[in-house]
Amino acid sequence: MADADLEEIRRARMAQLRQQQGGSKSGGGGGGGGGEGPSDEQKQQAASEARASMLSQILEPAAADRLGRIRLVKASRAEDVENRLIMLARSGQLRQKVNEEQLKDILGAVSDQQKEQETVKVQRRKGGWDDDDLDDLLNEDI
Fold first, then answer.
1. CA–CA separation, 58 vs 53, rounded Å?
2. pLDDT at 95 over 90
3. Which of 11, 44, 78, 104 could staple 70 via S-S, CB 3.0–4.6 A?
4. Does an H or E element contain 80, and which?
């Protein structure tokens, strides 16, 4: 069933790409007409629509709702999870729709991966101030 869904997504994407390249193929080859191609904004909108369509076919409604709430809080994390889901779907590793529990597992994996990348190392300098130095300063003023 997932293979049929993916095939539908591929067909829709191919039709979308053909439409973006110029729906009417009567033009021939071309040097004229600089502004006739789709703008960057239109390409971005089409890509986001294709992405949303694919995610709606991958996710169960409860999981899609959770991902939407995550997007409100931290958009970068939601995008990372979406990228991972799309990658899994394209590679054929998803056999059924992702439920909320599976989404939580993927969120945990993404979170662990980001924790490894975001480690902060604090190095304290030796030879700085200590308690004796403060006492020395206070006694000199008296």
1. 9
2. no
3. 78
4. helix 75-90
